[in-house]
Design a protein that fits this description.
Pfam families: DctP
Structural class: alpha/beta
Largest sheet: 6 strands, mixed
Number of helices: 9
InterPro entries: DctP_fam, TRAP_DctP_sf
CATH architecture of one domain: 3-Layer(aba) Sandwich
Keywords: Signal
CATH class of one domain: Alpha Beta
Shape: globular
Amino acid sequence: MRQITSGGKPVHNLADLSGMKIRTPNSRFALDLFKSLGAAPVAMNFSELYTSLQTHVVDGQENPLANIEFARFFEVQKYLSLSSHMWGGYWLLANGDWWKAIPTNLQDVVSRNAVKVAERQRSDIQKLNDSLVVKLKSQGMTVNEVAAADRAAMKAKLADYYARWKKEFGDTAWGLMEGYTGKLG
């Protein structure tokens, strides 16, 4: 999951995001998300981010915990807000024609093992994230978890965002996603 760091104040709720200059990847999806939450998102390459945080070009940023620790953002950001606002995972993709051409018994082997590895990876990532929270605290960051009620308020604020992206992705893709996430918007 992706989390938020900031220099001036922690993010507990929607009001804390209001007007915050927050770096996002150059992605319409991410930019629209933070704009919909009332922030002032700034698309920026990751390579420019540390200096931009250091010189206050942006107030904060969002990334997975491993990126936050690896890039040493704890040196230029005081607060880590565990918002879990977006999933950031890995995809196993194959050409559809190729996939249909291989025997079903091989498809079954690949699918079954992909599920096993994905479950193990989720467990490993959770352990890593737990250790990174401890490490980032020890490196001076003040850590807060965004309360469930505040995450629910953020989700409610995203109703129009979800409607736009459902239209963009289409009912089939959106339905598949909601099969994993539950109802969005």
